[in-house]
Structures are given as structure tokens and as C-alpha cells.
Write a structure and sequence with these properties.
Blueprint lengths: L1 E3 L2 E3 L6 H6 L5 E3 L2 H19 L25 H9 L6 E4 L2 H16 L7 H10 L5 E2 L2 E3 L8 H11 L4 E4 L2 E4 H8 L8 H8 L3 H32 L8 H7 L2 H13 L15 H4 L1 H24 L6 E4 L27 E2 L4 E4 L7 H29 L22 H17 L21 H31 L8 H13 L10 H13 L4
Parallel strand pairs: 2-3
Antiparallel strand pairs: 1-2, 4-6, 5-7, 7-8, 9-11, 10-11
Length: 529
């Protein structure tokens, strides 16, 4: 639950805004009730581990993955090393710090729900790092998202122990030095603590949530930019007619159409446009509406993942194992049986340990793949609208490439070329990952969701989509400079004024890369109609 701009409590659910703020220092708190819940779960773990009867607990007394049938190491600290050392096999460039810190905040939230059997110190020390700039160095490649994000979270956990590398104030250094520089102490773990830190989908969930946040901002921006385009060209707003869109039958189109009509309130058509506009204008509410419907599905998956517990095994005290403790096990209202626990368990009386698959990242894989598809089509729309705007055969008589003196100057020609490249990159990356299951781990993981790949790819695609929005915005700003009319709708006029204040007109050719980024920042971080 967010309490102030700089303070987050692990008691309540997280959202993407909190995850985004976790990239910078903030205070994360653990209240007494949460601490008591963690302690209760820890005592249950200890009781079951040392109790009578079958005391096998995965990761505490056993090997890992395909080697679960073998005994683990007897010493608890040694069992921690047994958990983490073999997972140091990641490759590639480090993940963005924003994803790593968001993932660790999610890990803390999952553990704080009191089903993982971890020590309270683990959660307390996780929360302490957020007051600093400490960020583990985590390689991009290695996770398949089946038993959670094992390899990336192992790197993060090792950094917390002072092993591997980490960043402080943006500078990469050995993790032990980074801990000292940040005023933190190395974290001591047993086997259960170590496994709980790595056996979750926190990297996948963090990347999906942050990607969704970026695509939603771009979606809002494209709706506003489409309105500005229609106003500058003098289009009739009939394509947004309320009855028309209600007859279409899709709630997203109705929602987006209402927002666009609001932005275009007061618009005056020029009367010189064709009876029917190109699809990049006329069908924009249907396209953006379908995207809205899809994004609402992704919203639900992300909300469930942000509130759920991704770990294995889980420990259920007798009074918390029915799934009726609302909010404790995450998820949405799925009826009387939602959240109930079944399957092989150990223990009775005070509670039980259940071995299962809550670390399986299939929901996020499907959601991130859908998000990628939405991103690709939104990118197509932005690129096609800019192409229309720079084409004198379709832009109402404006000069080619919106150049002030075509031939001597080239206007938006470079930007338009770059948008083609960005769209091609987005399309290449949009191939679904969640359908490409590849068995691994001696067929212990014989079905694999690849949610991590889907999520990280969607995060990168969202950034490219923002640049496409910025490119279109630069074109719209330039169109007015070279002869397009001043917007007639006050809402469109306000948007144009903001763009004019951010991006200078292109009188003589100059590099426009920084202008595109500046326009993207304006659109994605400012409240739009």
C-alpha cells in the first residue's frame, strides 16, 4: 500500500507506479502484523522440518530440480550454497536496474505474505536495500520462467550475500564493495531462505508490469495524437460517432471513442477532406479500442501476479490454508473454491507444507505475448500516420517530408526512415514466446512457459513504441510550421502548444534524435486527455 511518494508498505498490494518508483531510493516498511505472519510461517517450517514422520521438504533437505530425489547438504549454510552456486550460469548484458529493483520489491512482497517459511531477517534486509541505490548486476539470459526466474534471482541473491557484482549510484563494482558503499551488510541465508528468494516469477512480473505501464502511456498518447492529426488535416470527426461505436459492440472502442471525442470537442472540419478517411484515421478508434480491451486483460494478469505468491514449496498454518484469508494468497475473486490448496502435503495439526507449481510463469507469458502483439499494432498505427503526414499526395498539400524548402532541406525524412526501422524491430520481436516450450532439466521441467523472455522482450518493445509516438509528435509539430492549420479543438491546441514548447521547428536540417526522445518523454509522462 502506497502511503507517501517515498514510502511503501509491504502490507498492501503493489502497482506499476510503485514498481517504477523503486528504481530510485525509497522507504519500504514492514508492520508488526506482517512480521508476525512471517515468523509464524517460519516456525511452521521449523516444526515440519524437525517433526516426526515424513520431513522431506524440497530445497531444505533435498537436492534441486531433477536432483530432488537425492539428499541435500546437511549444514544449512552449506545448503544455501548448494541452492545458488550452480545457478550462476547467466549470460549477456545486465538487466536494466529498474527491472532488478522492481523484481526485488516484488520478491519482498511475496515473501512477506507469510507462506514461504523464510526468516523475518530476509524480508527486513530486502526492504533495507531500497533506501539505497544498491542494485544487483543480473545477466539478461538464463531464465525459462518455469521454476520462477531461477538464474536471474540467484544472481540478485548472491549480490545480497556480497558475491558477484552490483551497482551503487550507477557504478558497477564487486558486490561486497557495493554493499559496503551502500551501508548494507552481507545477507546470511539457509537453504530455505535461498530457495525462496530464487523460486519465484518476480523478474517476469516486474518486466511485464513495467512494460504494461509503458504501453498504456503510449496508447493514451496515440489516441491524443490521432485527434491532433485529424484536427490539423481538417477531418470530420464522424468516425468517432457515439452511436457508430456503440453499434460496433466492443467496450474498448466505446471507451477510447469517448476519450477522443472529448479531446476533439470544438473541432471544425475543413470540408475539403474525402468522404472517408484512410484507415489510419477512420479505424483508429476500433484499433485503439481493441488494444484497450487486450490491455485490460493484461491489467488483470499483472494485478494477480503483483498480489500473488510465487514460490515452492508453500507453508500453510492451519488457520490460513483454506484460501479464505482474502488478499493473503493473492488473485481475484474466483468463487468459493478460489485459492484452496490441494495436492501432496506434509504435516498436520499446526499446518502443512505443499509442493506445487506457483512459480510457473504461464499467465505472464500469455499476457506479455498479447502485450507484444498490441505494441506491434500500435507501432504500425504511429508509423502509418507519420507516413500519411509527410506524403504530399495525402497530407492536404503540405510539402513532402514537411521540409521548409524541399531539396535544399529534408525535414522529417530521417525521422520517417527511423520509424520504419523501429517498426521492423518491433515486428521481429513480436513472435510469441509462450508457445515455444522447450523441455529442460532432465525433463523435470518438461513444459516451459518462457514468460521471462516474453516479459523482457515486451519491456524493450514498449520503449521503441514510445519513440514511435515521439516521432509522430515531432511530425505533427512540424506540420503546423510548414502550413497546416492551427488546431480548432482547444484540447488539440493545448497538446500542440506543449509540443511547440518542447520541440523547436525544423527550419534548416538538423539531427532530430534528441527531439524525438524529448517529445516521447513529454507524451509518456504527462497526463493526456
Amino acid at each position: 500500500m502506497l502511503t507517501t511518494l517515498d514510502t511503501v508498505s509491504l502490507t498492501g498490494p503493489l502497482d506499476s507506479a510503485v514498481l517504477r518508483r523503486a528504481a530510485a531510493p525509497l522507504t519500504v516498511t514492514v508492520d508488526d502484523e506482517t512480521r508476525a505472519r512471517i515468523d509464524h510461517s517460519r516456525r511452521l517450517f521449523r516444526d515440519l522440518l524437525h517433526g516426526e514422520g515424513d520431513s522431506r521438504i524440497y530445497g531444505a533437505t533435498t537436492g534441486f530440480g531433477a536432483l530432488v530425489g537425492y539428499a541435500g547438504r546437511a549444514d544449512e549454510a552449506d545448503q544455501c550454497d548448494n541452492t545458488l552456486a550452480h545457478l550462476g550460469a547467466g549470460q549477456g548484458p545486465d538487466l536494466p536496474p529498474a527491472i532488478v529493483r522492481a523484481a526485488l520489491l516484488l520478491r519482498a512482497r511475496s515473501l512477506a505474505q507469510g507462506f514461504s517459511g523464510v526468516s523475518a531477517e530476509v524480508v527486513e534486509r530486502l526492504t533495507a536495500l531500497f533506501a539505497t541505490t544498491f542494485t544487483p548486476a543480473v545477466p539478461s539470459y538464463g531464465s525459462v520462467g518455469a521454476s520462477g526466474d531461477l538464474i536471474p534471482l540467484a544472481y540478485a541473491t548472491q549480490a545480497l550475500r556480497g558475491r558477484g557484482h552490483a551497482y551503487v549510484d550507477g557504478r558497477r563494482m564487486p558486490a561486497a564493495e557495493a554493499l559496503t558503499a551502500a551501508g548494507l551488510r552481507p545477507l546470511a541465508l539457509d537453504g530455505r531462505d535461498a530457495l525462496a528468494l530464487v523460486n519465484g516469477t518476480s523478474v517476469t512480473t516486474a518486466a511485464t508490469a513495467l512494460a504494461l505501464d509503458g504501453v498504456r502511456a503510449a496508447h493514451r498518447a496515440l489516441a491524443a495524437l490521432t485527434c491532433l492529426l485529424a484536427d490539423l488535416l481538417g477531418c470530420d470527426p464522424g468516425f468517432l460517432d457515439e452511436d457508430l461505436l456503440r453499434a460496433y459492440g466492443h467496450p474498448g472502442a466505446v471507451h477510447v471513442g469517448a476519450r477522443m471525442r472529448h479531446t476533439l470537442t470544438g473541432v471544425t472540419p475543413s470540408g475539403t477532406r474525402p468522404l472517408q478517411e484512410p484507415y489510419s484515421i477512420r479505424c483508429a478508434p476500433q484499433l485503439l479500442g481493441a488494444a484497450e480491451d487486450a490491455l485490460r486483460y493484461v491489467d488483470g494478469v499483472v494485478a494477480a501476479d503483483l498480489g500473488g505468491v510465487s514460490d515452492n514449496p508453500l507453508f500453510f498454518p492451519a488457520d490460513r490454508g483454506t484460501g479464505k484469508d482474502t488478499g493473503a494468497a493473492g488473485g481475484t475473486d474466483g468463487g468459493a473454491d478460489a485459492g484452496q490448496v490441494t495436492g501432496p502435503g506434509v504435516g498436520a495439526g499446526p499446518g502443512k507444507v505443499v509442493h506445487g507449481g506457483n512459480f510457473f510463469g504461464q499467465p505472464a507469458a500469455f499476457a506479455a505475448d498479447l502485450l507484444a502483439s498490441v505494441t506491434a499494432q500500435l507501432g504500425n498505427l504511429a508509423e502509418r500516420q507519420l507516413d500519411l503526414l509527410v506524403d504530399p499526395a495525402r497530407n492536404g498539400g503540405l510539402p513532402p517530408m514537411l521540409a521548409t524548402a524541399p531539396g535544399r532541406e529534408h525535414g522529417l525524412q530521417g525521422v520517417q526512415l527511423a520509424t520504419t526501422s523501429l517498426v521492423a524491430e518491433i515486428r521481429r520481436a513480436a513472435t510469441p514466446a509462450g508457445m515455444q516450450s522447450l523441455p529442460t532439466n532432465l525433463h523435470n521441467q518438461d513444459v516451459v512457459p518462457f514468460g521471462t523472455q516474453a516479459a523482457l522482450r515486451s519491456y524493450d518493445m514498449a520503449e521503441l513504441l514510445g519513440l514511435l509516438c515521439g516521432s509522430l509528435a515531432v511530425g505533427l509539430r512540424q506540420a503546423v510550421h510548414v502550413g497546416a492549420r492551427r488546431p480548432t479543438a482547444p484540447g488539440c491546441g493545448e497538446l500542440l502548444d506543449a509540443l511547440v514548447a518542447t520541440v523547436p521547428a525544423v527550419e534548416r536540417d538538423r539531427p532530430l534524435d534528441a527531439d524525438v526522445r524529448a517529445a516521447a518523454r513529454l507524451l509518456l509522462t504527462t497526463g493526456l486527455p
